[in-house]
Amino acid sequence: MRENRLRTLWKEDKTAVNGWLAVANSFSAETMAHQGWDSLTIDMQHGVIDYQAMVTMLQAISTTPTVPVVRVPWLEPGIIMKSLDAGAYGVICPMVNTREDAQKLVAYTRYAPKGTRSFGPVRALLYGGADYAAHANDTVIAFAMIETAQALDNLDDILSVEGLEAIYIGPSDLSLALGCRPVFDDPDPKAVQAIEHILERAKAHGVVAGIHNGVPEVALARAAKGFRFVTVGSDARLMAAGSQQILKAMRAG
Asked: How far apart are the C-alpha atoms of 213 and 219, rounded to whole Å?
């Protein structure tokens, strides 16, 4: 079975640098993967990516050691299982608000007897290897997104769910839920306090904490505090930023 390098990094107490894919194109995904990201997340929730595009993007990422992750649209068993069957080694699930939500997420990503995932790893066998079925439960990772006031209220109940190994903070949604500005890098004090609380409780439960960032400086600071999965930028934002830099130089000249 092909290793999940996220697990390897975490065992060494290292932070994984994750890129974000919002452009529905296999060539752009392949280009991003060849830059050396530890992992790349295909965004099916807010991006413009459908299932078929996601499959081709997973195929492109698999030409490199970069770990393929998918943010699914919702806590729904069909799309979670199909994403794993397509070869995703991690699933980020939005709006996990209760212990029951977290239990469902874990169950949907694990084969029996540990879960309820249906067996049919069509492409996952090609990506992971012929022994995928024997090792999938110990290889794939389920990230529960903590991004609502309800999730904060139920935080310890969520983090104590057996089999939940990672959580992911969406700073914008979390900020909105707390009546703050929806931003990544410089959230209002109330949101900052919530982020620090989530990280503290995740450490206490032995759960890996991840978070979305806009710039490297903030991601590095959060990694220093203990976040072990940090997203920095996306293909769409990088393309826009690169274009702006070139045009600014050209127009100034």
From this structure: 6
Mean pLDDT, range 146-168, rounded to an integer:
98
Residues 174-226 have pLDDT tens digits of 999 999 999 989 999 999 999 999 999 999 999 999 999 999 999 999 999 99
135 is catalytic: no
**Spatial separation of the C-alpha atoms in residues 91 and 80, rounded to whole Å:** 7
Give residue 149's identity as a one-letter amino acid code: A
Mean pLDDT of 27-54: 97
* Residue of 34, 46, 197, 205 marked catalytic: 46
Contact assessment for residue 121 and residue 132, using Cβ atoms and an 8 Å cutoff? yes
Burial class (CB in 10 A: 0-12, 13-18, 19+), 174: buried
Is residue 49 within 8 Å of 21, Cβ to Cβ?
Answer: yes
Triad 221, 145, 101: Cα angle to 5°:
155
Chain length of the chain: 253
Residue 210 corresponds to which tokens in the numbers above? 């991840």
Which top CATH class is 5-252? alpha beta
Q: What is the average pLDDT across 167-180?
A: 96
Structure-token match 């894919």, residue found: 21
Helices (H) and strands (E) in the chain, counts: 13, 8
160 close to 182: Cβ distance less than 8 angstroms: no
